[in-house]
C-alpha cells in the first residue's frame, strides 16, 4: 500500500470445490486415467513432463506461456471435513475453526494497510472475505433500474432511528450507486462476469480507483454431474478463464495486479458418486 505505483489484488472465489485435477491434470499416468474414466479431460495442453492444462483454459494458457501465470497444486487450508459451508467460511475468514472469525482475511489486511473503502466486490451480498474494513463497496445490479426517489425517501423513514452518521453513510452509498456510471442502463447480459471483469479492469486502472476486486464463480459443486470436456465443471472453469481474459484487456491493470483464484477444497482422484 505504501508504494508510489498503485498495485491491485483481484480474488476469484471458485465456490463448490474446484477439481484441480480437472483444471491441471496429471499426464502419462495410466492409473490416473483409469480411476478418472468418465470425467477424464481429453487432449489437455502439456505444461511440463508431469502436468497439463485443461484445453479450454486458453486465457490462463497465455498467462502461463508469457510467464505471468503460476499454479499452486494440492495446497490446502487445515480444514479436512466435507462441508462446503464450513470450507468456504474458512476460505474467506482465514480462521482455523468454522464461523469463529466474523471478518475476512482480505478485509483485515486492507484495514491494516489503511485501505478503507478501496475494495469492490462484484457480488451480492458483500462476501465475508472483504468484511472487516469500513465502507468497502459491492456492485451487482438486479435489473438495470436505478432506485426511485420514493425508495430513497422510504429508506430515510425506515432508518430514522439510526444515528446521523449511519444515515448519512447509507444515503451517500445510495446516491453514489444512483450516479455510478457502472449502473446506468445495465441489462442482464451486462451483469455477466465477463462484462463485469472488463469494467473492473477499467476501475482498477484508475489511480484513484479501488485496489481490490473480488469475483465469485459458483457451480463447482457438481458431484455426479461434473462431466468431461463439455460438462458443468468445465463451463465453470471457462467462466473463471473468461474473467482473467477480460481483466487482461486493461493492460495497465493486468501489469499491476495479482489475480488469485481460491476454492474451499479440491477433489479426490476418484470421481464422485
Structure, explained:
- By secondary structure, the protein is an alpha/beta fold.
- Helices cover 36% and strands 11% of the residues.
- It has helices spanning 20-23, 30-35, 58-65, 84-93, 105-112, 149-158, 164-179, 193-205, 232-248, 251-255; strands at residues 8-14, 45-46, 52-53, 119-121, 137-138, 212-217, 257-263.
- Strands 5-4-6-1-7 form a five-stranded parallel β-sheet.
- Helix 8 runs parallel beside helix 9 (232-248).
Q: Would you kindly provide a brief summary of this structure?
A:
The chain is of the alpha/beta class.
Q: What class, by secondary structure content?
A: alpha/beta
Major sheet summary line? 5 strands, parallel
Strand order of the largest sheet: 5-4-6-1-7
Task: Provide the helix percentage.
Answer: 25-40%
Q: How large a portion of the residues is in β-strands, by DSSP E?
A: 5-15%
Mean residue pLDDT = 84
Low-confidence runs: 181-188
The dominant shape is globular
N-end to C-end Cα span: 46 Å
* Gyration radius, in Å: 20 Å
Number of strands: 7
Q: How many H/I helical runs?
A: 10
| Oligomer status | single chain
Helices and strands, in N-to-C order?
A: EHHEEHHHEEHHHEHHE
Secondary-structure map:
Layout: E1 8-14, H1 20-23, H2 30-35, E2 45-46, E3 52-53, H3 58-65, H4 84-93, H5 105-112, E4 119-121, E5 137-138, H6 149-158, H7 164-179, H8 193-205, E6 212-217, H9 232-248, H10 251-255, E7 257-263
Parallel strand pairs: 1-6, 1-7, 4-5, 4-6
Antiparallel strand pairs: 2-3
Helix pairs in contact: 8-9
Amino acid at each position: 500500500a505504501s508504494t508510489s505505483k498503485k498495485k491491485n489484488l483481484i480474488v476469484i472465489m471458485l465456490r463448490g470445490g474446484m477439481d484441480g485435477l480437472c483444471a491441471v491434470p496429471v499426464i502419462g499416468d495410466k492409473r490416473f486415467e483409469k480411476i478418472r474414466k468418465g470425467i477424464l479431460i481429453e487432449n489437455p495442453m502439456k505444461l511440463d513432463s508431469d502436468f497439463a492444462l485443461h484445453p479450454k483454459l486458453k486465457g490462463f494458457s497465455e498467462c502461463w506461456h508469457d510467464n505471468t501465470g503460476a499454479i499452486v497444486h494440492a495446497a490446502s487450508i487445515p480444514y479436512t471435513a466435507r462441508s462446503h459451508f464450513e470450507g468456504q467460511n474458512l476460505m474467506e475468514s482465514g480462521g482455523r475453526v468454522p464461523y469463529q472469525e466474523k471478518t475476512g482475511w482480505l478485509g483485515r489486511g486492507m484495514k491494516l494497510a489503511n485501505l478503507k473503502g478501496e475494495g469492490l466486490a462484484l457480488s451480492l451480498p458483500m462476501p465475508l472475505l472483504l468484511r472487516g474494513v469500513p465502507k468497502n463497496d459491492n456492485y451487482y445490479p438486479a435489473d438495470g433500474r436505478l432506485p426511485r426517489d420514493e425508495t430513497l425517501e422510504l429508506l430515510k423513514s425506515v432508518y430514522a432511528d439510526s444515528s446521523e452518521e449511519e444515515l448519512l453513510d447509507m444515503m451517500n452509498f445510495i446516491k453514489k450507486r444512483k450516479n455510478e456510471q457502472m449502473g446506468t442502463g445495465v441489462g442482464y447480459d451486462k451483469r455477466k462476469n465477463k462484462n463485469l471483469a472488463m469494467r473492473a479492469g477499467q476501475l482498477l486502472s484508475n489511480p484513484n480507483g479501488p485496489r481490490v476486486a473480488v469475483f465469485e464463480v459458483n457451480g463447482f459443486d457438481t458431484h455426479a454431474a461434473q462431466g468431461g470436456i463439455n460438462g458443468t465443471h468445465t463451463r465453470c472453469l471457462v467462466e473463471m478463464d473468461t474473467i482473467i481474459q477480460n481483466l487482461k484487456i486493461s493492460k495497465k491493470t493486468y501489469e499491476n495486479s495479482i489475480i488469485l483464484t481460491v476454492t474451499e477444497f479440491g477433489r479426490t482422484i476418484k470421481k464422485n458418486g
